[in-house]
């Protein structure tokens, strides 16, 4: 089934060339079924590439999904034009009275900063608090997962001695959980981060559960036990060349960076990267949509129960 998107979104033509079924607003209006309403808060600087990667994963399910893209109002991305953002993205003020079946909050290349130092931190806290009553299930990615664990549960991110960068092997720790249905016992996933959340910190919170981790890269998937919040510390949406582009960008900017691990054949940066994570990445998004959103969200979104996590207290935020 298709993903419903705006007719003029650049990702549409890319996905259609790949024979991925997307549906425009006009065509969707003729259908009687209720699509899943999904909100994506895209914090990544390269908006179009992130949109396209996420839509690739979300489209390969038997579900019709209506997608809204959300941007921050307190910070304007430098890599997207104002006209582009105004045409394809909404602000929180525009959607705050709506309800959604699911939401995705992406990562952002700001993990070495303290959360309270991020320009849009207060706005993000407001959105995460709003989501508890207006969104049934939320998927947090990389920095977004760290930010959500800090806000909802007080879990701190920890600096790493060196960047976790590459494709790493992970182990399923909770067999037969719906989110990992169809996964092999061992599977690969990309990471690109300077900080981590530690297993011992998660273990202190009885309502959270670790589903998958890596001996080398650390935690990969943590969930709230009711399934309403899923925290993924890697980048399952990454394309074949994403790590390659990050590596060559940092080299061009004279930044200290090692080659991404387990990525280039014979560790040769001139060789085409080896993709070893696509199938499990697709399963992750499909399982989340099916088991944690579609099969559990109420048909009437006005009846959403409140999600777990602490209550937002703006007086406790650092100035």
Verbal overview:
This protein is of the alpha/beta class. The chain has one domain (3-307): Rossmann fold (3-Layer(aba) Sandwich). Helices cover 29% and strands 24% of the residues. It contains 10 helices and 12 strands. The protein has helices spanning 10-17, 25-28, 47-59, 82-88, 92-95, 121-134, 143-153, 199-202, 242-252, 278-294; strands spanning 3-5, 22-24, 36-41, 65-70, 89-90, 100-105, 135-141, 158-172, 186-196, 208-214, 218-224, 229-232. Strands 1, 2, 3, 4, 5, 6, 7, 8, 9, 10, 11 and 12 form a 12-stranded mixed sheet that branches. Helix 1 crosses helix 3 (47-59). Residues 311-315 have low confidence and may be disordered.
CATH homologous superfamily descriptor: Class I glutamine amidotransferase (GATase) domain
Structural class: alpha/beta
Query: How many individual helices?
Result: 10
Instruction: Give a short account of the largest sheet.
Output: 12 strands, mixed
Beta fraction: 15-25%
The helix/strand series, from N terminus to C terminus, equals EHEHEHEHEHEHEHEEHEEEHH
Could you tell me how far the N terminus lies from the C terminus, measured between alpha carbons in angstroms?
A: 46 Å
Mean residue pLDDT: 88
CATH architecture name: 3-Layer(aba) Sandwich
The rough form would be described as globular
CATH-derived topology: Rossmann fold
Instruction: Work out the number of β strands.
Output: 12
Q: In angstroms, what is the radius of gyration?
A: 19 Å
Number of domains: 1
Helix content: 25-40%
CATH class identity: Alpha Beta
> Low-confidence runs (pLDDT<50, min 5 residues)?
311-315
């Amino acid at each position: 089934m298709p993903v419903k998107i705006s007719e003029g979104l650049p990702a549409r033509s890319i996905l259609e060339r790949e024979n991925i079924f997307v549906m425009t607003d006009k065509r969707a209006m003729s259908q009687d079924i209720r699509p899943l309403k999904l909100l994506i808060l895209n914090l990544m600087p390269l908006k179009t590439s992130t949109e396209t990667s996420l839509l690739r994963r979300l489209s390969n399910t038997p579900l019709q999904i209506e997608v809204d893209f959300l941007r921050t109002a307190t910070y304007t991305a430098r890599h997207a034009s104002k006209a582009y953002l105004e045409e394809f993205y909404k602000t929180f003020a525009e959607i705050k009275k709506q309800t959604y079946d699911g939401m995705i909050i992406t990562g952002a290349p700001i993990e070495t900063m303290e959360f309270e130092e991020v320009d849009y931190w207060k706005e993000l806290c407001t959105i995460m608090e709003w989501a508890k009553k207006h969104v049934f299930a939320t998927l947090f990615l990389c920095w977004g997962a760290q930010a959500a664990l800090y806000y909802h549960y007080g879990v701190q991110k920890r600096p790493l001695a060196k960047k976790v960068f590459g494709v790493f092997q992970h182990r399923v720790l909770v067999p037969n959980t719906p989110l990992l249905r169809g996964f092999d016992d061992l599977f690969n996933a990309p990471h690109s981060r300077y900080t981590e959340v530690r297993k011992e910190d998660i273990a202190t919170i009885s309502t959270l559960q670790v589903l998958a981790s890596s001996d080398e890269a650390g935690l990969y998937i943590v969930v709230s036990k009711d399934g309403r919040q899923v925290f993924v510390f890697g980048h399952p949406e990454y394309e074949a060349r994403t790590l390659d582009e990050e590596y060559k960008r940092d080299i061009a900017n004279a930044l200290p960076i090692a080659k991404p691990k387990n990525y280039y054949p014979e560790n040769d940066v001139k060789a085409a990267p080896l993709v070893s994570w696509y199938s499990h990445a697709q399963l992750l998004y499909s399982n989340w949509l099916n088991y944690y959103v579609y099969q559990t969200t109420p048909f009437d979104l006005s009846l959403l129960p409140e999600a777990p996590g602490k209550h937002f207290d703006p007086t406790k935020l650092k100035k």
